Amino acid sequence: MPQISRYPENLTIRQLIRMMTDLRKKHAAELDTDLIDAFGLPTLYDKTMRSLSGGTRQKVGACLAFLFNPPIIILDEPTAGLDPLASEILKAKLLREKQDGKLILITSHILSDLDGLTTDVMYMQEGRLQFLKPVAWLQQQTGETKLNRAIARLMENPSLIDDAQASKPNFTLF
Known about the structure:
This protein is α+β, with helices and mostly antiparallel strands and 174 residues long. The protein has helices at 13-23, 34-38, 54-67, 84-99, 135-142, 147-156, 158-166; strands spanning 72-76, 103-107, 120-125, 128-134.
């Protein structure tokens, strides 16, 4: 799910979902429509993408990300533009998917949205991996329970990042 979804502006939500399911026919029997129903999209099915607010576009993008029941879910700023209720609906869905054993990768600058969702944090700065650590390690290292505060503490005290960097995994991100 990209942060900003780009879909044909003249398509309705119904047409977009139908187009995506037509493209992936072999997965059509396994459709996950939980978010479609939770977000109330059926009442908006005949609206064109060009007429939707940014938040509703984000809901459509989230629905498409989960629609084919993928084992790995990659989301970029998934709560951007969502109202508080929609954000909580999406977070609850993420927790259910996590409990089902799916790998979920989230990129976000809104770290408060990730509290309670994440088990591990990969922190990057200027495209370079600074560390990959469990949230529990970050909390212990910084004395902070909130992810946003823990990362802020690491940014305030670069020696903590240096300690984390010494034990970062041996891989390169491209």
